[in-house]
Amino acid sequence: MKAAVLKAFGSPLAVEVVPDPVPGTGEVIVDVAAARLLAYAGEVFSGARNYSLELPIVPGSGAIGRVRAFGPDATHLSVGDWVYCDPTVRSRDDVLVPDILLQGLTAAGEGGLRLQKYYHDGAFAERMRVPTENAVRIGTIDEADAASWCALGSLLVPYGGFAAIALQAGETVVVNGATGAFGSAGVAVALALGAAAVIATGRNQEALDDLARRYGRRVRPVRMQGDEENDRRRIQQAAEGPVDCVLDLLPPAASMSQVRAAVLAVRPYGRVALMGGVGMAGGPGLELPYPWLMRNCITIRGQWMYARDAIPRVIGLVRAGLIDLAGFRITSFGLDAVNEAVAHAAAHAGPFRFTVIEP
Ligand SMILES: NC(=O)c1ccc[n+]([C@@H]2O[C@H](COP(=O)([O-])OP(=O)(O)OC[C@H]3O[C@@H](n4cnc5c(N)ncnc54)[C@H](OP(=O)(O)O)[C@@H]3O)[C@@H](O)[C@H]2O)c1
Questions:
Q1: Ligand 1 interacting residues, C-beta cut-off 6 A
Q2: In terms of DSSP H, where are the helices of the chain?
């Protein structure tokens, strides 16, 4: 089969013929229809993000495709089923502390790297092999919509954060970094889950205006100006009442002060989910005041990705019309143009738009 291979950090991906993946017990082979590119894929492939990838590797985290073959332990899958290939691979031999690999993207710690040795290759290929539990049926779709369904990759991340802090219908939530790819998906998910108001923060006024235009009065954009206390005051003013929870999705380039501007806006007994890449490149810690956390019974929750049951639920939100995949702008490239696709994804990052490879 044809695949895109990263042979060295900083070199372009090489499109070449590699051996077909072979399924073992507990695995599924999927014919990849569409695979989303992260806006920051170029930073991963250049080595700038310092992600754990054992080279050479076929990168690509997550895909929409059709089941081609499965092992004897699958009891619900059929050949031809449309599935979401969830990149979040967890080790199966420790229920309390599973190691996590993001297949085709990065691994956490020694255990994640050991998983990567086996589930080595990702989605930028004609076929991929995933653990059985990672091939999640999405139901019947039109083949032409496979690229749109890649939006699941953006929607699931904030859903994981909201599930972790138990967002309730009728609550007021701040999405910090709402003008980014994952943050804007966070706004869509919060609304779908019934948030009464979403305070959407960012520095890009045009992107904030677009969020307000799309969603109307339940979304209240607040442009961040870089003065922590002033930004926080304006978040609280926009909330017109207590902020029940905060979801932070800022990137490594953002400062801890930008995170604190939103986190400290939460009400007493409030909940905060930290999901961004802030601090991944080093630098100072978050430094939240101990007495503020203690006296106000604040919950601070770190969250990487999402639990498996998030996937059918987000599919349900889409199927119910609570999230409209038609709202995403998608640019598609063939496998042979994978390097152009990486450059395009970086140059066209932003809310409700992404780039896909359609092998
Ligand atoms: N926890 C998880 O499971 C998980 C999963 C996937 C991704 N992530 C993390 O989520 C982060 C966001 O990803 P993304 O694809 O949404 O990124 P993105 O599209 O680049 O969005 C970044 C957002 O941060 C804002 N921002 C604020 N200060 C910034 C600064 N100094 N430099 C750049 N942007 C700044 C940007 O908008 P303005 O310019 O309007 O301020 C934008 O809203 C990633 O860095 C990644 O580490 C976490």
A1: 39, 157, 177, 179-183, 202-204, 207, 249-254, 258, 275-277, 303-305, 349
A2: 41-46, 109-118, 146-149, 152-164, 181-192, 205-215, 228-239, 256-263, 290-295, 310-319, 338-347
The pLDDT value recorded for residue 13 is: 98
pLDDT in tens, 41-54: 999 999 999 999 99
Q: Whose CA is nearest to atom 15 of ligand 1?
A: 181
Banded pLDDT at 99 (limits 50, 70, 90): very high
Measured CA to CA, the distance from residue 315 to residue 148 in angstroms comes to 12
Domains and CATH numbers, the chain: 2-151+328-357 (3.90.180.10), 155-302 (3.40.50.720)
DSSP designation for 176: E
| pLDDT given for residue 244 in this prediction | 99
Per-residue model confidence as pLDDT tens digits over 109-142: 999 999 999 999 999 999 999 999 999 999 999 9
pTM above 0.90, yes or no: yes
User: Rg of the Cα trace of the chain?
Assistant: 20
Mutate to test the pocket of ligand 1, among 86, 88, 179, 303 (most ligand atoms within 8 A of CB): 179
**Predicted confidence band of residue 281 (pLDDT cuts 50, 70, 90):** confident
SS (H, E, C) 88-111: EEECCCCCCCCCEEECCCEECHHH
Whether 37 contacts 345, CB under 8 Å: yes
333 three-class SS: strand
Q: In the structure encoding, which two tokens stand for residue 308, read together?
A: 């498996």
DSSP 124: S
Atom of ligand 1 nearest to the CA of 255: 31
